[in-house]
Design goal:
This protein is an all-beta fold. The chain has one domain (3-67). It has no helices and six strands. The strands form two sheets. It has a four-stranded antiparallel β-sheet, with no helix packed on it. The radius of gyration is 14 Å and the shape is elongated.
């Protein structure tokens, strides 16, 4: 799934000055897991500059999923 990326903090690519970002994600084998909780994986999302392809920001959309169920809010 690729879609236009909208974030108030990422407006310009620091490498080429491009202003259009694409949202992409890693899933399955690229999932992020927390130390001590191998079953709490999350897809890792990236804001990618459309002009030069640089990854400008990486993030998870639901960081609570990285915690063990007993430690979640």
């Amino acid at each position: 799934m690729m879609e236009e990326y909208r974030d108030e903090y990422v407006k310009v690519c620091p490498w080429c000055g491009g202003s259009e970002m694409i949202e992409a994600y890693q899933s399955a084998y690229g999932a992020l897991t927390a130390k001590g909780n191998p079953f709490g994986g999350c897809a890792l999302y990236h804001a990618v500059c459309r002009r030069c392809g640089s990854v400008v920001r990486s993030f998870v959309k639901e960081p609570e999923k990285l915690l063990k169920k007993k430690d979640r809010r």
